[in-house]
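Please discuss these two lines.
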Amino acid sequence: MVRRALLTNSARGDKPETAAIPIRSCPRRNVFSIGTGQLDSLAGASDTGFMTGIDEPLGPTSRVFFSQRLRLHYVDWGNPSAPPLLLIHGGQDHCRNWDWVAERLRGEWHIIAPDLRGHGDSQWSPDGNYSMAGYLYDLAQLIHQQQLAPVNIIAHSLGGNIVLRYAGVYPEKVRKIIAIEGLGPSPKMLAERLKRGIAERMAKWIEEQRALSGRLPRRYPSIEDAFKRMQEANRHLSPEQARHLTQHGVNQNEDGTYSWKFDNYVRAWPPYDMTVTEVETLWSLISCPTLLIYGKESWASNPLEDGRANHFRDARVEGFDKAGHWVHHDRLDAFVDRARAFLAGD
């Protein structure tokens, strides 16, 4: 059953396991101002919280878990007695892209936001291989090790693709899903890709891997240069959002330059994966209510119009005006209001 509701408001809303190992937080200059969600430049602020005042909430705690011998990072926003809510980021992104959402929902939920393998502060795959099966296993391990099921999940892009497959494999372990443009390429894009046979796709992948082996991470002379690149990549971002995402998305190199944290190999599209029919079968096995969100100014197609939503048992599709691919950034207030209502029972 598919229920459709289009948001047209144009206002812009601008059990832990003992194996979980806390790791040292990196000092940062930019922190949130609690209550507004805006980024303030506060030199010398605490590296363990958003504000230095004693009565203010602390920021997230960095922890790690292990999956297929990889040391993977996640942040825990506290409130462990509340129901768990996972926030899963997209490709070439990191877990701190959820900070604005987490700050608003942390009072109602126990929020955990992982860095996918090869992203953020998680370990890179030694062989440069990033398969959907590997991503899915990592999610399964995090939920299993931290005893989070049944869990609510909000996921974006690649993260949504992973979560929707997981929920088809383990429908009993997921309570509700909000997937922001998480269905993968549109049917039209997939059809174009599948016109190439396996031999051609395999040859293209080999060439791509060979090229990536000689590609060094881009080095920016200053964090300001990386910040400008972030703004160029997403014109919907406010300067405060772009700066925050940049500061948490780069490492400083030994020579003083800055590079993005993600592994360049995550750019490669695997030569083979589950078939379209297999993915659609997993979608049909999802038993929980599912909210499929897309931005009306994004490259992504409307999943109701392209037919993909029809494969779900209980899904609704909602489009956001004045939003691109990152709806949770571009229309923050509207997105949080909708997420809160959906997770609470709407």
Summary: The CA atoms of residues 228 and 242 lie 8 Å apart. The radius of gyration is 20 Å. Residues 3-54 have pLDDT under 50 and may be disordered.
